[in-house]
Each structure stands twice: as C-alpha cells, then as structure tokens.
Amino acid sequence: MDPVPLASSYTEMTELLLPNDTNNLGRALGGAVLNWMDICGAIAAMRFAGNQVVTASMDHVDFISAIELGEVAVVRAYVFSTGRTSLDVKVDVHAENPRTGDPDRETTSSFLTFVALDETGTPTPVPDVAYETDDERWLREEAVEERRAQLQQVADRLDEV
C-alpha cells in the first residue's frame, strides 16, 4: 500500500453557533463542539483511508476560549500518524466573529484516534502518512509534540490527586 500525503486528509468545516447549540450564557455547549470535532476528524480519516472509520478515542480536551452565539466555529483536522488499522487525527477549533472581522482565536484542540473498517465492518489496514513538504513535516512534528505534552499534563494532574 503506497503512503498517502498528509495534505490529502486536510479537512475544514465551519459551524455558525446558533441558539440550539448554546448554554444559558449564549456560549457553545461543550457537547456540540465535541460533536463537530468528531465529525471533522472522521471526515479527515475517511479521506485518508478511503474507508469508513469509527472513533476509537478522543484525548483530553480543555476549552480555553468560549464560542459566542453568532460566532463561526472553524474546525480543522488532519491525519498525522497511522498504525496498522488506526489513524491519529489532530483537530483544532477556532472561533471568528464575522461581524467584526477580528482574527480567529483558538478555542480548543484534541487528538482523536479512528479505526478504518472494510465493507464487512472489520478493521482494515491503512496506508502510512507521506510528508511531502516541510509544512507537512512541521505539522506532524507539532502534533506529536503537542500530544506528548498534553498527555504529560494529564498524567501530572493525576499525580496531584
């Protein structure tokens, strides 16, 4: 199986934050944001694998900035690493205010793992990731390092308990 370029998995979707997806403060419900992240990540994984995928895990998620009613959530995802049948996807969420034109701001990010399935629902092999440009190599290195740091922070918090 030939390696597939990281860029072939890149997916970006947008969501306008409407009242049905907000809490009583007019901010995005965490569950809605997690849903968008799962969908965007799954699309990136399916594009890469050329097969259906299922979510195996989502790493730790911190919501660092609220998405306000009327803002646009921009969700970006790409496959940065693969196993035999699994795909690791980095998903970032930013918010932008279309009325003011303010630059977008980071709201959350996480790492999701998907498993590729064949037509019978059995896990199926996936290709390796090809890093064809310096930007793709940088994206992979950034994702690996961020995931490592995030997992270390979670472990440190558990040690404090």
TrEMBL record:
> What Enzyme Commission number does this protein have?
3.1.2.20
Reading the lineage from the top rank, the first entry is Archaea
Per the UniProt record, one Pfam family is 4HBT
Q: Which UniProt keywords apply?
A: Hydrolase
Among InterPro entries, the record links this protein to:
Cytosol_ACT (IPR040170), HOTDOG_ACOT (IPR033120), HotDog_dom_sf (IPR029069), Thioestr_dom (IPR006683)
Q: Does the keyword Hydrolase apply?
A: yes
One molecular function GO term is: fatty acyl-CoA hydrolase activity
Could you tell me which residue ranges the HotDog ACOT-type domain spans?
7-120
Q: What class of enzyme is it?
A: hydrolase
Protein name (database record):
Acyl-CoA thioesterase
Identify the species of origin. Answer: Halomarina ordinaria
Which lineage do the record's taxonomy fields give for this organism? Archaea, Methanobacteriati, Methanobacteriota, Stenosarchaea group, Halobacteria
